[in-house]
């Protein structure tokens, strides 16, 4: 038969289909490998542990407020009352400049505090993992109320001699939830920049932010904020999976600032006498609960078992029909083994515990962090995670839910999965006193031994 016959051409065409199909499979595999979303790995993190001489016992704190001569008796009594009920213990610390009488709130004092905290945690992290500062591709810092020029990231770049092409970002004014917001920024950057190593720095400067007026809502911040900070090392390099502690699974951001009550719940402002401070609204817990509810509605379908989701849907329908009063609260302990709730204060921790129907053990890390370190703002979630590690509770395969709140008002949450064996004997910010925790009673009484 003639080779130009159409039958032969048809046969040859059909014979080529397996080859074409194989080619498509190969292309699909390579496309998936090269274009799939890369995982974000948390290699390790370091939390600042203030030296013991910076500890501010409750009695010492009140004494300093009294001797300073800044406050009238009514303001002193209010701060003492708040402090004694705060759940903050005698181990929480303030910068050396705050120990001065009167406290030093100068720019140089704020710089000194920032250097002390961040230089320490970054050096610890770099030495532990033998990291060359020039290998850092992305640098993000967050400090809400202290925004110097040059920026905090510039301070770190100068100190450690980082590369000139490093991608650096200094975030300010973002509140106590800015730590997870910084993680989210790194996550988004890593979608574009493959094989990158990122360093996130979270802290709040206490030195320049003491309030010296009489406004009750602004005096609260004086009593709860303490010295602290954290450095977090992240990577999207596949080879770093072998040495990473955790893998990021979900990160959800919620901002309810369009609502005036939420927007004004945490606000830096000037009182009638010209004193600057941060006012905390009486509606703060209500606002936090509202923001968390919105966040959970988005996160829930991604993490909860179908049985829990079904229970919620059924109860929601029944409530619409007037068959029951309350909507079912899903059991989030079926999705997570551990919870890290921002240690912003007893009321915040109590509110989340009640809202999510958690047990005392579930919020132990948060209460212990509040007691030992006070409200360290955006870094508190990392102290809590270190607490779980030091207690030996974090196991490979465990999932931990971090819940952060901040001015604006924002609720940001992150879900991490432990992908390595955590050694509880590795030294961290809890190693020296972990045997004294959890605290007994309301968190302001003596420690259990």
UniProtKB/TrEMBL annotation:
Transferase in keyword set: yes
Catalytic residue positions: 176, 255, 338, 342, 371, 375
Gene Ontology CC: membrane
Domain Beta-ketoacyl-[acyl-carrier-protein] synthase III C-terminal span(s) in chain numbering: 336-417
Enzyme nomenclature, EC number: 2.3.1.-
Statement: the UniProt record of this protein carries the keyword Transmembrane helix: yes
InterPro entries in the record: 3-ktacl-CoA_syn (IPR012392), ACP_syn_III_C (IPR013747), FAE1_typ3_polyketide_synth (IPR013601), Thiolase-like (IPR016039)
Leader peptide range in chain numbering: none
Residue ranges occupied by any FAE domain in the UniProt entry: 33-321
Catalysis: reaction(s): a very-long-chain acyl-CoA + malonyl-CoA + H(+) = a very-long-chain 3-oxoacyl-CoA + CO2 + CoA
Keywords: Acyltransferase, Membrane, Transferase, Transmembrane, Transmembrane helix
Gene3D superfamilies for the chain: 3.40.47.10
Transmembrane segments annotated in the record for this chain: 16-35
Broadest EC class assigned to this enzyme: transferase
GO BP annotations listed: fatty acid biosynthetic process
Pfam families linked: ACP_syn_III_C, FAE1_CUT1_RppA
Pathway: Lipid metabolism; fatty acid biosynthesis
GO molecular function: fatty acid elongase activity
Family the entry assigns: Belongs to the thiolase-like superfamily. Chalcone/stilbene synthases family.
Record-given protein name: 3-ketoacyl-CoA synthase
